[in-house]
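Example for reference:
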Amino acid sequence: MASAMFMAVLLTLAAVGALASDPGPLQDFCVADNTSQVLVNGFVCKNPMKVDADDFFFSGLNKPGNTTNKVGSSVTTVNVNKIGGLNTLGISLVRIDYAPYGQNPPHTHPRATEILTVIEGTLHVGFVTSNPQNRLIFKVLNAGDVFVFPVGLIHFQFNPGHENTVAIAALSSQNPGVITIANAVFGSNPKIDDGILAKAFQVDKKVIDDLQSQFWMDNNNY
């Protein structure tokens, strides 16, 4: 009985793990066919006989992103929209550039865990655990340091130094998605009722109106 229960637990954990990431490939590759009008969870496969090396290639990650914006950072995304060969492989990559005192604002990736490596400079990073603890887990990273942001949790990075910082991050989805908290809450289209937000944040409606009047820029280059 005990062994049967143990096996049942293992099977349940395996099923949960399988559902928590992109579907696994059932063939060598399934290069995204961006010309197809068929909508599926991912992309339709390109004819494998028409696939070549360029379907698995991206150039330009050595080029710094433009950090002359309100938040002082730029995220260069290399996902399935940039490399069709990533379709069904459950992985993607980003380069993040930070100006001095720049930040990658609090955000989440609804479909991926992120593992980040600092290439040069210093970063103050952290994520917040879910309710009810809402515990902040944070660390100061230097070149060569690695940090993990669990899937779905709000996280951020901030460059506290006088020099530019560069990081590379891998994510466990071909298309992780990103929800920047301030943009989503105060920059939604149409706007969320200011009374709802005033009550949620326990502030005056004028504060919400002011926040909703701002231009909430996106620092991601999709």
In short: The CA atoms of residues 117 and 146 lie 4 Å apart. The longest strand covers residues 92-98. Helices lie at 2-19, 181-186, 194-201, 205-212. The two ends are 52 Å apart (CA to CA).
